[in-house]
TrEMBL record:
GO molecular function: DNA binding
InterPro entries reported for this sequence: DUF1818, ssDNA-bd_transcriptional_reg
Pfam families reported in the protein's UniProt record: DUF1818
Protein name: DUF1818 family protein
SUPFAM superfamilies, A to Z: ssDNA-binding transcriptional regulator domain (SSF54447)
Gene3D superfamilies cross-referenced by the UniProt entry: Transcriptional Coactivator Pc4, Chain A
Amino acid sequence: MIQQEGPGWRLARDPSRGVHPVLIGGEGWAFELTQPEWDALSDLVLTLERQHRALVDQLMAEEAIELELDRGLWWGCLQGDRGSWSLSVVLTPDAGRGVEGHWPAPASAAIVAAMRTLWDTRIDQRD
């Protein structure tokens, strides 16, 4: 079991939990994800963060940016400026439950760092 948390965010992965091995949360909310949902969310969020990093040097200090990405099940939005940003995600499956989450700055950067660690750990375990 891997469990990480900080102010305004929480992330846990427990493969023994069966259908929903990943729990992700924010201030006052949390939801469980299937492995495919987690894989798709991680890919979406890490892509948004990578896009922000690629653009940050082109932004003036007071300039705002909003990046949106829609990838089937997941929609995500990174909104902020050079130094800080918030992150919103929405799961909209063809059938079943839908979920919505939001992390304000600085919790958003912290959850993305934790997601990257968990993603990298899982990739390393596949090799």
